[in-house]
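Sample entry as discussed:
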Amino acid sequence: MNLSQLRFFTAIAETGSLSAAARKMNVSQPALSKYLSELEQGLGLKLFYRFKGKMRLTAAGCVYIASANRILEIEQSTINTIQNLNTVNQPLYIGGTPHEGEETIAQIYPILKRVYPQYDLRLIEGYTQFLYQLIHNGEADFALTTYLQTSLDVEFLPLFEQELVLCVPSYYRPPPEDFSSALVDLQDFAKIPFVAMNLDTSIGTVSRQLLESEGIDPLIVYSSDSSYMVHEMILAGAGGGLLPIKMMRETSRANYFRLKRTAFVQYGLITKKNHVFCDAERYIIYLLLKREEGVNYIRFCQSPQVNAILEEHDHLGGAFSGGLL
């Protein structure tokens, strides 16, 4: 079957009428009727039935049109890709934190280029406050970062939340037998020195709120804007600290504990207020969400905009080394 015949079928399904479909496709009604009859004979199944003067899809017809739509979408995507080969590359300026931003862009870049070859991602690195100021100044299209209360002219689109865990040098306490269920009381670690994120970071703010809710005023021996630096200081034995759960690694130098009183840090995109995402940006959001799909202790932030982006792009897919799609 050729693609023109698939368009005939979808036109019949959309209009519910052979005559209306014939007019839409600029063919004669007898030719369209013959095409449908031959198709149903070849399949040995009825694809339509009549109800109140309209042609409705049978169960077999629903299966057939779903496949037809996918094939036509692939055709259109192929045409777009070929046409875009002659288009001058358009940069997308994205803000991101060192390490995490680099890793994220490295993973999504080759997938994005397969679907939108006309776009180039340009990463601008910095920590939370810098990224918010970057967007406020209009120096990037959007930034990947955590939520932070601010008076700047930016909007935050939450994508997912990540649980904070306590990380301590291994000599403080042996590892839990079952990480998932062995929850610890933060009070048990109140007297150890702490390595902390600065208060002008999201992780630092949430960590401070958690400590204060427990009535703990720890001795801060080192603080940083970088969660990677905080982690390295803990691994070096400087003290304990609160970190996003994705930073856990297999090591003999530190142990990780889930907390009885849980705390989460929200991750997402920041843009200028009233920013309208282009198609490539919407696909990047989709890839960011799929990158975290199935990761333990990470919760998706449900919203109409996020749900619409997931539904819109599921047919395009993608592939990460972790086995996405």
In short: The first strand starts at residue 48 and ends at 51. The chain has two domains: 3-84, 94-325.
